[in-house]
Amino acid sequence: MKLFTGLIFCSLVLGASGLLSFLGEAARGTWDMLRAYQDMREANYIGADKYFHARGNYDAAKRGPGGAWAAKVISDARENVQRFTDRFSFGGSGRGAEDSRADQAANEWGRSGRDPNHFRPHGLPDKY
Fold this sequence. Notes:
Elements: H1 2-43, H2 49-61, H3 65-88, H4 97-111
Helix pairs in contact: 1-2, 1-3, 2-3, 2-4, 3-4
């Protein structure tokens, strides 16, 4: 009985440890996504959108499963909000379904661990 209770206690501790690890990865992944967004806004460089999408997802996914999860949730939410608000604004954001699909492809590219520099436009400052 004591062995059984010990095993249950250990699995609860390990489970809680795994959950805390996942949540920590998710928090750091969220920060990675925010940093990529801030860099994109600061750079204000035409043609760099896909690079920053891929880079944010890449950095977040490197954190582990929690970071990859956060990157997917944030990326999907951003595209869904953009699609929703485009329906109610005059002229939309200038984006369309095709651009949204390209953004999602860049997001997936980064999350899968592939090099975000594939999308890096020529002339983007090295700072980014």
